[in-house]
Each structure stands twice: as C-alpha cells, then as structure tokens.
Amino acid sequence: MSTNKSKLYSIFTSKCPQCREGAFFENKFSFNVLKTTITKTHCPKCNLKYMREPSFFYGAMYVGYGLSVGLAIAIYVISTLFFGLTMRESLVAIAIGLFTLAPWTLRLSRVLWIHLFVSYQKDPNKRVK
Questions:
Q1: Quick one: which of 87, 88, 105, 113 could link to 60 by a disulfide (CB 3.0–4.6 Å)?
Q2: Average pLDDT of the segment spanning 19-41
Q3: Structural Rg of the chain based on CA atoms
Q4: Is 1 inside any structural domain?
C-alpha cells in the first residue's frame, strides 16, 4: 500500500485518481503502443469505473496534443540553443523525440484526463463507484 497520496505522484505513477493506490493500466510501461495504453475497467482497490462514459478518453487526445506541442517546443529550443542545430536538423530531432516519447505521452494524457474529472476521496465509505 502506497503511503504517498499526492496528486503528482499518482499521475506520474499511473494510479487511480480516487484512491491513488490502484493501478490504472493493465500492463507496465513499454514501447509497444498497443499494449501500453490498455486501461483497466475498474480500480482494483476502490472499484472506481475508469470508463466514465462511452468514448470518455477521446478527450485525452487534446491533452496529448498539448503535451506533444510542449515537447516539440522544448526539443527545438534545446537542439538550437545548446547543440546549434539548423532548422532541418531540429525538425528531425523533434520527429525522433516525439516518435520515441509517444507511448509516454499517450499514457500520461489518459491519466491526466481522468484526474481532471475524478477527485481524491480520503474516506473509503464515501467513494463513488
């Protein structure tokens, strides 16, 4: 049982937003995009239903887009300021970086999306199923 109940900890470790203990994904992180984004149906600890409504996680695409744009800007700034790359070389670095980090951004966007809609419940008797 985890003793750290912070929101950032539960987001970056892919934990349930309600109890912050149960796992959110079926599999551990891998670079296989098909395996890494499989979400559990319910939290194993508090039984929270993760799929709030049909197509709930389509909204996570907007979060993923924002993460990807932020990463692209960061890679561009780092590649031009610190490594002195040209525009074309920076675009190649951005493409490689975004392709490599795609599984991470997919997982993080889903976790961030559900954390926007479900709040932490300290009392297990008041948890919404």
A1: 113
A2: 87
A3: 17
A4: no
